Amino acid sequence: MASILQVDLLTKSFGDLVLFKDISFGIAEGERIGLIAKNGSGKTTLLNILVGKEPHDSGSVVFRKDLRIAYLEQDPIYPENLTVLQACFHSGNEITDLIAEYEQVINSKDQSGLENILQRMDILQAWDYEHKAKQILAQLKIKNFDQKIGELSGGQLKRVALANVLITEPDLIILDEPTNHLDLDMVEWLEGHLQQSRLSLLMVTHDRYFLDRVCNEIIEIDQQQLYRYKGNYSYYLEKRDERVSAQNSEIDRANNLLRKELDWMRRQPQARGTKAKSRIDAFYDLEKKAQQARDAGNVQLQMKGSYIGNKIFEAKHIYKSFDDIKILEDFNYIFARYEKLGIVGNNGTGKSTFIKMLMGEVAPDKGEFDIGETVKFGYYSQDGLKFDDQMKVIDVVQNIAEVIDLGNGSKLTASQFLQHFLFAPEKQHSFVYKLSGGERRRLYLCTVLIANPNFLVLDEPTNDLDIVTLNILEEYLQQFKGCVIVVSHDRYFMDKTVDHLLAFQGDARIKDFPGNYTQYREWKEIQDSLEKEKQQASKPKEEKQPIVPTKPQEKKKLSFKEKREFEELDELIPKLEEEKNNLEVEMSSGTLSSDELISKSNRISELIDEIDEKTLRWMELSELI
Fold it and tell me: Which helix (H) or strand (E) holds 172?
């Protein structure tokens, strides 16, 4: 496969913080690559460097000449006064630039370049751009094309930007968290769309099912270095485990050697001879290797959790609607002790509204939530915590709790707790404003968990968290001795953490399903299939007419009139084709005015239709000869 991008010996740092050093990789035609790294390791920075939005310290980034690239940023920005459809023409890609050029020439007196523009419009199929834009926007559930950008939510804006990336069908798509703000139907549509396309792809995402099904290669940035795995996410997990095991074995061996070397170093006299210098240098190399951090994924955190009684909460005859949109209608539910509930459904069906009513942030129209006295909520909201950027990371957590009780007499300091969630000691004493977006979400998660709640309510906790953090959070929730409600579009996360679901289906219809998301999806597909069969069976059946054997008819022959028509068509079709060819030659001569170009272009369209019509009739008559 031909290479379309080559990165060689790329290094990037911010002051003393080195994100990656001398990393090299390439992308070939048709490769779909997932980029994995812990938050703060430089994933978004690397993507920005590739598209020229950020500088790098050293190294090179070389694209194939004339490569068409589209980039979905994590936080896209458009002028607020544009409509949704206008934003699709504001992307600055090759097709939108060409359309703008065409409109400028048409509206000007000088139309000398029109012929060339028309040819390029045909080649790029620019005439279909608006239709394709509306199709993809509709798949992403953006249907008000005249709505102003300034009126959109953050999630809607991200979907408009995603549509812009997909419309042009570029050679290489670079996506930063494409599944954020997509509901499950949209994620599965995007999954299928990318699987069927032939484009090349480089993507950052935390959605592991999405990674597994879309990508055929994984690259990982770990401790400033890049590792490459020629397979999907499942293959990556297997091979990464082998790599980490080998590294840990090497660290264990280095530790054993270090003990021997340390003993030798202590026995050396103060004035060491030059013969021992090489061995002293080797000692320091061993010391550095022995101090390497071990695999962060092996972290285990078992917290006691404060006592929770038998009464958790009861929803009694809850009604909620916004104008004509019904969210809940006479909803009743008794939440059980130690229950782990997942809430799924498309955007706009009321999932977050339900959570906000439970937390007392939104009042129901009718009914009430009766919450037990021992319940101590830990609420992770989509809005997040507003941090003081001038505070240090450790101070943010210590302001909530300096020590957390693990049970059995064990305690954990705030610093140790932060280390479990991948904040190294030097990062803990860094200021909040230096954190990446994903690190801020991870810090927010730590502030929720360290308060030691017995009922966790997590509204879209997987957005902007890296996969390593998600693994730690999943393990935490599996061992959590309390109640959990999770709202998430992350299918993998839901499968690992909840034991049953409330599926919000819209119009106040809610399905209580005893199982995880994959089991629910399989059940729903069966139900949809049965419903389709039921609808087919309910349709009135047409009475079958008895088959009466008929005598085979003799082949019909041409009448005199049809024979004459056939002969005329035989002469006419070549003349029409000759006229079309002559017009095409004239249009390519460069001597025609814009009015003549448009007139002859219209005539060519008429000729194509006429040739098709006459040829079809000629074929019908030829079968009778």
Answer: strand 172-176
